[in-house]
Amino acid sequence: MKKFSAYLVILFSCSIFSQEVHLHGNFTIRDFFINKDTTYYIEKRHVRISPESGKYGYFMGGYGLKIFDNPKKNEVITVSNELINTVCSVRFFNKSSNKEQEVFYYTEGRAVDALHIEQLGLIVLSLSDKKIIAIDYKNKPIFDVVLDVELKRIARRIAYRGDFLYYAVDSGEIYKHDLKSKHGKILFNTKSTVSDFHIFEKFLIYSTTDGNIVKQSLTTEKQERIKLTDNFVLNGLFIESKLILGTFDGSILVLNLETLKIEKELKIHKRSVLSLKNVDGEFYSSGIDKTIRKWKFN
User: Fold this and answer.
1) Using one digit for the tens of pLDDT, what is the confidence trace for 121-152?
2) Residue 72 pLDDT grade (very low, low, confident, very high; cuts 50, 70, 90)
3) Which residues pair with 75 in a beta bridge?
4) How high is the pLDDT of residue 281?
5) Domain locations in the chain?
6) Which stretch of DSSP H or E encloses residue 136?
7) What is the mean pLDDT of the chain?
8) Which of 66, 236, 260, 293 would disulfide-bridge 79, Cβ 3.0–4.6 Å?
9) DSSP character for 82?
10) What is the model's pTM?
11) Given a cut of 90, is residue 252 above it in pLDDT?
């Protein structure tokens, strides 16, 4: 594993874009987080820690999907799919002892997507058996499944805003689910396979696997769209009035939410972007090309 500090500076669209390889791993880096000067990242069935400082990392049992920082409890939380086809796990590791503390197993399906709602003490899983569950871990090692939603299709993407859980299913519908009342409804039917979406107060931005990026009003029928050529969005990060979008071909798009125009297209990764983070105003991304890259634009 090597770390490079030299910057590449490129003149791009009349602005300065710079990037560096923050970390080079041995395998695809599925997800990561950065706490101060320490990077925790997923490689296959392990969490790696850089710089190592005597700690090589944690064994997750299965193949890692997501990793979350839980700083108030000094914990690392991972979501992985075990080697048994229908089993996934949520594991809690103590940063100080470098040991696994507790683990929750779900035995009826694999995790497709996951999110951590830290303020509620919840891990939410979208599952291959067409369910979404929310696990309350505040009293661990006792885990309480406080939400169990049965779906007609698998939900590939889930998100949280306010008191509501949002999810996009394979048939194209995006649902809004009240975590308090536990009632859900269809927010919008995209009639497409959604690869990523973001909810705002008055509109919805969603991306599809055929390359469309769509801005849909939530109060009227107004819709705007642009189409990517031989590419599609995998994930996104909201900052100020823009969406930073990671794509299948490894590029990063800077999308103006007001105009729905791509302001910049940055060639960051050689292959697909799997995770995006904003760490104290600096951007980081990981991908299939085995790197975590640090980058910025003016």
Assistant:
1) 999 999 999 999 999 999 999 999 999 999 99
2) very high
3) 70, 94
4) 83
5) 1-30+233-298
6) strand 131-136
7) 91
8) 66
9) -
10) 0.90
11) yes
Query: How many CB atoms sit inside 10 A of residue 62's CB?
Result: 21
d(CA 291, CA 285): 8
Question: How many whole angstroms separate alpha carbon 77 and alpha carbon 121?
Answer: 12
Q: Which two tokens stand for residue 206?
A: 């969603």
CA distance 264 to 120: 36
Handedness of CA 206, 179, 91, 2 (dihedral sign): positive
User: What 8-state DSSP symbol labels residue 221?
Assistant: S
Q: What is the pLDDT of residues 31-51, one digit of tens each?
A: 999 998 899 999 999 999 998
2 pLDDT higher than 80: no
SS3 letters for 247-262?
ECCCEEEEEECCCCEE
- Across 186-206, average pLDDT: 95
φ, ψ for residue 83 (rounded to 5)? -70, -25
Which H or E run contains 89? Answer: strand 88-94
Strand, helix or coil at 204?
strand
**Sign of torsion, CA 59 84 287 104?**
negative
Please name the residue that has the structure tokens 């909810």.
199
Evaluate whether 38 touches 22 at the Cβ level (below 8 Å): no
Is 56 a residue whose pLDDT tops 50?
Answer: yes
Cα separation of 118 and 68, whole Å?
A: 9
Which residues are CB-contacts of 254 (< 8 A; sequence separation ≥ 6)?
242, 243, 244, 245, 262, 263, 264, 265, 266, 297
Looking up tokens 């779900």 gives 106
* Span of 14-23, 111-120, 218-227 with lowest mean pLDDT: 14-23
Q: Counting beta carbons within 10 angstroms of the beta carbon of residue 96, is it exposed (0 to 12), middle (13 to 18) or buried (19 or more)?
A: exposed
Residues of 200-231 as b/e, b for ≥16 C-beta within 10 angstroms?
Answer: eeebbbbbbeebbbbbbeeeeeeeeeeebeee
Could you tell me if 66 and 60 are in contact, meaning their C-beta atoms sit under 8 angstroms apart? Answer: no
